[in-house]
Amino acid sequence: MRKVVSIVAIASVALVLSGCAKRGYDRARPDEYAVARSQPLVVPPDFSLRPPQPGVARPQDNNPSAQALDALFGGAAPRSQAERSTLDQAGGDSASPGVRSDAGDPDTKIVDKGGTTRDIVAAPEGDGQNARTAAN
Questions:
Q1: What is the C-alpha separation between 111 and 118, in angstroms, rounded?
Q2: What's the start-to-end Cα distance of the chain, in Å?
Q3: Nearest to 119 by CA among 130, 133, 99, 105
Q4: Which pLDDT does position 27 carry in this prediction?
């Protein structure tokens, strides 16, 4: 039994020490301390650039908010002839710039259309199949 234990101990010591040896286990790897010189970066000439004209707005002076809105919503869409005609008939060019402030003004004249209009506006959406009327 002692011979088996001593043989196993010698074999394990030999195996552990063989991991330290370089023969047979040396692999080719790059030297991490070697520095290779590379060519310097060269910017190619851009022939599409032109010198700025005096009095012309600079492209980088645009408002970032306007650029974001244009990116999100695509800018102003062209209106059709029918839309322009409807806006002209409705007085679209004569609207007050502060109309939203005037809407909450206590001096604004309003018309009370009664509870029926309020009920129609507040009614849930549907196909109308279950609609009922009540006589007053």
A1: 12
A2: 112
A3: 133
A4: 64
What does the block give as tokens for 106? Answer: 């206590």
Residue 37 and residue 80: Cα distance in Å, rounded? 63
Give the length of the chain: 136
- Rounded Cα distance between 105 and 23, Å, is 95
Q: What is the pLDDT of residues 9-18, one digit of tens each?
A: 999 988 887 7
DSSP annotation string for the chain: -HHHHHHHHHHHHHHHHHTT--TTT------TT-----PPP-PPP-TT--PPPTTPPPGGGS-HHHHHHHHHH-SPPPPPHHHHHHHHHHTGGG--TTHHHHHT-TT------HHHHHHHHHSPP--STT------
How far are the Cα atoms of 13, 14, 19, 20, 83 from residue 23, in angstroms, in the given order?
17, 14, 10, 9, 87
Cα distance between residue 53 and residue 61, in whole Å: 15
Give CA 65 to chain center in angstroms. 14
Predicted model pTM? 0.24
